[in-house]
Amino acid sequence: MTGAKKDAGQYARSLIEASLNPQVTISVEGQITDMNKAMAGITGKTREALTGTDFFEYFTNPKKAREVYREVFAKGFVVDYPLTIRNRKATPVLFNGSLYKDESEKVLGAGVVARDITKVLVVEDIALNQLLMKTLLDDFGFERDIAENGKVAIEKLQTNTYDIILMNLQMPEMNGFEATEYIRKTLKLDIPIIGLTADVTTVDFAKCKAVGLNDYIAKPVDERVLYSKIIGLIRKPEPNLLVQNDEKQSKKHIKCIDLDYLIHRTKNNSEMIIQMISAYLEQTPSLISAIKSGILKKDWDAISAAAYKMIPSFSIMGIGADFENMAKEIQRYASNQKQSEDLHVLVAKLEKVCTQACKELEEELHKIKTAAL
Questions:
Q1: Start-end ranges of CATH 3.30.450.20 in the chain?
Q2: Beta strand 215-218 with 193-197: parallel, antiparallel or unpaired?
Q3: The CATH number of the domain covering residues in 3-116
Q4: Among 260, 301, 262, 298, which residue's Cα sits nearest to residue 280?
């Protein structure tokens, strides 16, 4: 080993041992060259067993892990990239990393550190709801803090750092709209904020956007939707269906599903994953058909019922929240018994993404069944 490489290696070693979070160094080829005790502990592997293996092997979604590797070497760094470590608990983490070089500025590798995926501030005045949110967030493996109203939340934000806020919109003292507006305009924080409301039908969407809410979710909270929205807001997701190639000015398809949540919730149980994918493949085409048939017959109840049944499936299969919102919009059209061109456009978009999702899930199902043989 040359002196420069040795110095760089010693520097990398000192960095990773200084971290209490799982941390690794990765070669240009994507192999693990070193790691700290925390990384060895969370994977359940010895340092000897980890050294020289592919970084991507230790995550529930190796393809996403490969994206982390590519991004850090392409950009020189990566910030808050969500991954799930493949272990007994399927531990969700956020990866941050940067390159390290020798004295001649030659890239030798990358140092990547995993931190707890998120620290959540829950702003909720009702004790029962507070307990429910604690239970859900603990189950997700997230850290959480509770504020009983908007004023307390603002006090906590001035002395603590959080990754995301779950904000009840109806509270005494200072409600969620007022607190969000203060956070945006006075504290000047761009932290993601999800509104919590007992009745989405009365939510003023324009007001939500105006005060700075990033999204909203109905109570009682659906844990699948909550997990999906938190992950989606912590790191800006890529477009779901089409991405523009600036050089060729052409469009290409990318995957619209992301099975991280399903893997996390089933603890990577292949039998359960097979059952849930199969259920999606069985129900989704018939629900799309029911919506289209309902439009032709002006059967608003049938349209609303089919759209309602589809809504949870988007977060379960990791399909973008935009499409979940489309299903909700279709449900609103049905409630208003309103026939319009916009409704037909929404249904066409929904059918397109669901058709693509079914194709991708059939491929995943085949892979899982083959691996189980």
A1: 3-116
A2: parallel
A3: 3.30.450.20
A4: 262
How far is Cα 124 from Cα 186, in angstroms, rounded to an integer? 21
Binning pLDDT at 50, 70 and 90, where does residue 283 land? very high
Helix (H, G, I), strand (E, B) or coil at 164: strand
- In the numeric block, the tokens 């909203």 are attached to 216
Phi, psi (5° rounding) for residue 276?
-75, -40
pLDDT in tens, 86-142: 877 777 777 878 887 777 788 888 888 877 666 899 999 988 889 888 888 887 778
Indicate the angle between helix axes 300-316 and 321-335, nearest 10 degrees. 160
For 28-50, the pLDDT digits (tens) are: 888 998 888 888 888 888 889 99
* Residue 294: HSE in the Cβ half-sphere, 13 Å Cα cutoff: 26
Per the confidence metrics, is the pTM higher than 0.70? no
Superfamily grouping for domain 119-234: Response regulator (3.40.50.2300)
Distance CA 151, CA 161 (A): 16
DSSP for residue 58: G
The candidate with the shortest Cα–Cα distance to 239, out of 224, 252, 228, 225, is 252
pLDDT score at 13: 47
Helix (H) or strand (E) holding 63: helix 62-75
Query: Token digits for 14?
Result: 């000192």
